[in-house]
Amino acid sequence: MGDVIFEARGASYTYGRVDDRPAVRDVDLDVSTGELVGVVGPNGSGKTTLLRLLLGALAPSLGQALAFGSPAAQWRRRELARLVGVVSQREEPAFPLRVKQAVLFGRYPHMGALGAPSKEDLAAVDRALDRCDVKSLSERWVATLSGGEWQRVRIARALAQNPRALVLDEGTASLDIRHEMEVFELVSELVHEGHLAGLLVTHHVNLAARFVDKIVVMDAGAAVAVGKPEQVLSPRVFEQVFGWPVARADWRGVPQFVPLRVGEREAGTPNQS
């Protein structure tokens, strides 16, 4: 692995409401160059809060959250945007844009005061469009794109920043299986071939297990399992976190989980550890 890009050391965060439990509590985590890390867990488990700590949108109540070796919350937003490309969970364009214009927004942290794109900016946009296989869509209005096309365009916009890290928060939400797979394939290739650090927050445990190098399972704000998917994922961990019985069926050594119907375990389905 390369340099450590994101780091949490005993990181905790409480939103400060009366009787609140920590949204994130005592989390240790590293994300390095050339490594794709997946964060999974149920709603309310602390996934997005952990992401916001690592991106500096929140400062930890206890412990440390570092980006590129410095406290993440101390980075100026524009400076961090030159280093980290982020694809958020939901986004609707505020005004009509063509695809190439949308991807050009990724260059704004690098542009001068006048905001006029340079040859370098335009070249970075072209490379990102090509790498994400959306160059043929350059002149399309983003409102005409399918969900999968729009997501690839948003990844191209993040890539146009020439970042050292790529972060996706529920990057496949509302996509069908084909487009989910295409996004996971693309992000994996970008991280491993482009020498980026990758951080992916997702509900899809099975897909994450197939693509990520390291998985973080969040439950009630804590990282209850951290490591290679094949080493730390088990029906016991899955059931503890998601509260539903499953059976494990490995695919080429990668754990995959099948949710059981009520009564199936009693009918003889083993509870694998």
Shape: globular
Which percent bin holds the helix content? 25-40%
CATH-defined architecture of the largest domain:
3-Layer(aba) Sandwich
In the residues, how many domains can be counted?
3
**How much of the sequence is in beta strands?**
15-25%
The radius of gyration computed from the alpha-carbon positions, rounded to a whole number of angstroms, is: 20 Å
Q: Structural class of the secondary elements?
A: alpha/beta
E-strand count: 12
Order of helices and strands: EEEHEEHEHHHEHEHEEHHEE
Task: Describe the largest sheet.
Answer: 6 strands, mixed
CATH-defined fold name of the largest domain: Rossmann fold
- Strands of the widest sheet, in order across it, are 6-7-8-3-9-10
Q: What average pLDDT do the residues reach?
A: 90
Oligomeric state as shown: single chain
Top-tier CATH class of the largest domain: Alpha Beta
CATH homology superfamily of the largest domain: P-loop containing nucleotide triphosphate hydrolases
Description:
With 273 residues, the chain is α/β, with parallel strands linked by helices. The chain has 3 domains: 154 residues, 3-Layer(aba) Sandwich (Rossmann fold); 68 residues, no CATH class; 30 residues, no CATH class. Helix content is 30%, strand content 23%. It has 9 helices and 12 strands. It has a 6-stranded mixed β-sheet, with helices on both faces. A 4-stranded antiparallel β-sheet has the order 2-1-4-5. A two-stranded antiparallel ribbon has the order 11-12. The longest helix has 18 residues.
